[in-house]
Write a structure and sequence with these properties.
The complex is a heterodimer of chains A (297) and B (391).
Chain A lengths: L15 H33 L3 H4 L4 H6 L9 H8 L3 H32 L5 H10 L6 H14 L5 H24 L4 H9 L4 H12 L1 H17 L2 H6 L9 H11 L4 H21 L1 H10 L5
Chain B lengths: L1 H11 L1 H26 L3 H12 L3 H8 L5 H32 L3 H37 L5 H8 L1 H32 L5 H9 L6 H11 L12 H8 L15 H27 L3 H9 L4 H12 L1 H16 L3 H6 L9 H10 L4 H29 L4
The chains are: A mainly alpha (297), B mainly alpha (391).
Chain lengths: 297, 391
Amino acid sequence: MSAGIGSPGVAPGESYRSVFVRRLPLRVAVIAICLVWFIPTLGILVSSFRPAGDITQNGWWDALLHPFESTWTTLNYEQVLGTENMANAFINSLIVTIPSTVIPITVAAFAAYAFAWMRFPFRRTLFLVVIALLVVPLQMSLIPVLEMYRILGITNSFLGVWLAHTAFGLPLAIFLLYNFISQLPGDLFETASIDGATHFQMFRRVVLPLSIPALAAFAIFQFLWVWNDLLVALVFLSAETEQSVMTLELSKLVGGRGQAWHLLTAGAFVTMLLPVTVFLLLQRYFVRGILSGSVKG
Amino acid sequence: MDDRVHIEQEQALGWRAFLMPVGAIVALVGLAMGIWFLVDRQAAPNAAAALFDAIGNPAEAQALRGGSGNKNVVKLILAAVALLVGVGGIWFFYAGLNAVVMRLSARWRGRLLPWVFVGPALALLTIYLVWPAVSTFVKSLTEGAGLANYEWALTTPANHAMYFNNLLWLVVGVAGSVGFGLLIAGLVDRVRYESVAKIFIFLPLAISLVGASVIWRFVYAWKPPSQPQYGLLNAIWTGLGQEPVPWIQTPEFHINTFALIFILIWLQTGFAMVVLSAAIKGVPTEITEAARLDGASERQLFRRIIVPMIRGSLITVTVTTAIVVLKIFDIVYVMTGGRFDTDVIAHQMIFQAFQFFNVGRASVLAVILFVAVLPLMLINIRNVRREGIAA
């Protein structure tokens, strides 16, 4: 265990047993908090495998405590994925999320490189403007951008959502990547340009590989942000179309069939599946992404 | 010096120098076609129809051209083009522009190349943030009732109730998230299974606000007293001998707003915990050991030494959470739709814009949100720049 500040070892003259007793309340508190945090999700998970009629007849904890007297089924998942458009929405969410993550990273990395290592007029002023845009909540953009989309005829299109997510993610992405790229050692660039590398080659062969930690952190943050987003999807895509994403479908399910718990529980779990998997696999990057992404407008 | 090297390189690679711009033009044309493919709604079905024609199934092809037929094939084609344009296209775009600029004389190349790198970002920011923000501000003054939009926003009693809700969210949501986060960070720092315990608290951050709302809607579920309660909270509540309460439909004492706020606390505590936990680990051991030797109890140690030493992180977490809370939308939208006296600014804004089509009022609410968030954001940016908690 890491030597955190709170590892008060065994004080002189104290038996291990009394240490155990002294630390008992602490352990109970930690375990209790973990349970409170986990139980609501557990309730959804358990209920999603129960028949529609059973869920509201008794508590899910009854079923969990008497697993052999209860009925279990995967029918809810079949129904949610089959007839409730969730499978389609899952693919749509992927189509929305992947470009909405890759495009802003690319655009921001090029811009951050230019701000850090190229010389051009108004460089500092423009950079400050980009940072200042962090303060603009995206609510300020929704109505004018939607009007523009109506004129261009790209409402309810993936293209429109990608560009919106890209632009809304850009100030943060440029800010984070600039912080990283501008700290790379300058010798690196001198050596490379003596070897005849152009800016583009330097960017691709030197800067990008070295920036992977920062890129990964932002990628995970943006991926989660877009996957879990409701507002942007609600405004620029509509729940009534082929392009509907998972958060829209789930909120539609709550609005229209709020008592159909067998669908809601299974639906909620399907939407959580990918981000939770990403979380469990890439925990370290995930933490870094969350920490670095905390100033998103 | 840079430029001389390029010229030599280009002479050495004559055929490549010729091929590059051609490739760039092909890529740019491909990108334009891809975008057209995505914008034109009939393009994907037509492509699918051509595919069916090619494999000798004219009936299916006819169905697709007529707007019916196998949707999955259309979807797959659309997805493939979407990913190709979205992911590959953006690289072709930069590579193509770069190659074109590289054909120019050294002087123009040096002038234009930075704008190739920074231009697309600036263009997107102008189109999606700068111009719309100005436009929204102008709309708030000119659309619909004009200046009276502000009068409506500031004097209507319903709106006062709404601002009070936002205030409740701000105070309770922030205090709850940061308080729990600090408490848990302090506690788990002392147990051996710290990393496991943290996962439990942290996991909700990966879940969408919509998903979290469904999870808690199930916890808050209500049934009449005569029937068994399947909602966990009412099961416990009736177990204590009380009447079941329809938590999210009960506006008395803002019970429902508190129920909604707790969803956010559940989600945000993990964020506070991670940041504060990292900060606590940064407190030098010498200081805490010295305090212990001086006879400080664990509680005194935490309150008098650790908390003051992580003040910077505490401020960052508090401000960040406050921004999230002020802009809260999803939970209210999914749980109550703003009914039962639970409305908040960001939700009412969407409601005005897309239910009542009252652009003026929606714009005023957006401006109010902007003004509320502005000082917090400024503090945060300054903090992040100074402390660099960024990756």
